[in-house]
Write a structure and sequence with these properties.
The complex is a heterodimer of chains A (114) and B (113).
Chain A (H helix, E strand, L loop, with lengths): L2 E3 L4 E5 L4 E3 L2 E3 L5 E7 L5 E7 L5 E3 L5 E5 L4 E6 L8 E8 L7 E3 L3 E6 L1
Chain B lengths: L4 E3 L2 E4 L5 E6 L6 E7 L5 E8 L2 E4 L8 E4 L6 E5 L8 E8 L7 E2 L3 E5 L1
Parallel strand pairs in B: 2-11
Antiparallel strand pairs in B: 1-3, 3-8, 4-5, 4-9, 5-6, 7-8, 9-10, 9-11
The chains are: A mainly beta (114), B mainly beta (113).
């Protein structure tokens, strides 16, 4: 069964600083990988996804993520954080083949300070 | 295009009552997924349905919980005889095919008193 680990529960960064959120997955085959963002009291919004091809994926709101098979990682990055990026971020892995059963990590809460 | 719609957004029930959560997928999407998010936790898969069929309900509690996705109308997640531990946010997602990206609704926040 697939699993996802987000080792950082909380991260605080200064506005304008760079950001990297870590995500490690466990899955026997090539996974489908996702990053979602959730603002308080809201649903999940898809930031970006990796299915195949180029391992550097560009998403919305200036985010990108890099799939590294050798490290089983799919870290999310942003070069310059804005106060509006404060939210909770979830990494997720979906099983390839058949239907897609998505497994989510426990999330990383991002705080942005002035 | 309307996204995934869920109603109600907030639901308060007393222990022993029934909760019915509705999900209208994106128009044209025939795959629906339900997830539960407990406080301070990530989303946990509950059930995956296609029109009129339950494909995988491995994440659903064996008792009191049921789900359907009829030919016409929204998908329904039904919780009978709710208990305080059922208090959570329940999210529905839909996709046009599977495997494919899932698009999430805003969730229903259930509070059991």
């Amino acid at each position: 069964a697939q699993s996802v680990t987000q080792p950082d529960i909380h991260i605080t960064v200064s506005e304008g600083a760079s950001l990297e959120l870590r995500c490690n997955y466990s899955y026997g085959a090539t996974p489908y990988l996702f990053w979602y963002v959730q603002s308080p009291g809201q649903g999940l919004q898809l930031l970006l996804k990796y299915f195949s091809g180029d391992t550097l994926v560009q998403g919305i709101k200036g985010f990108e993520a890099e799939f590294k098979r050798s490290q089983s990682s799919f870290n999310l990055r942003k070069p310059s954080v804005h106060w509006s990026d404060a939210a909770e971020y979830f990494c997720a892995v979906g099983a390839t083949g058949g239907y897609q059963k998505v497994t989510f990590g426990t999330g990383t809460k991002l705080q942005v300070i002035p | 295009n309307a996204g995934v719609m869920q109603n109600p957004r907030h639901l308060v029930r007393r222990r022993g009552q029934e909760a019915r959560l509705r999900c209208s997928p994106v128009k044209g999407h025939s795959h629906v997924y339900w997830y539960r998010q407990l406080p301070e936790e990530g989303l946990k898969f509950m059930v995956y349905l296609q029109k009129e069929n339950i494909i995988d309900e491995s994440g659903m509690p064996k008792e009191r919980f049921s789900a359907e996705f009829p030919k016409e109308g929204p998908s329904i997640l039904r919780i009978q005889q709710v208990v305080r531990g059922d208090s959570a946010a329940y999210f529905c997602a839909s996709s046009p095919d599977s495997p494919e990206t899932q698009y999430f609704g805003p969730g229903t926040r259930l509070l059991v008193l």
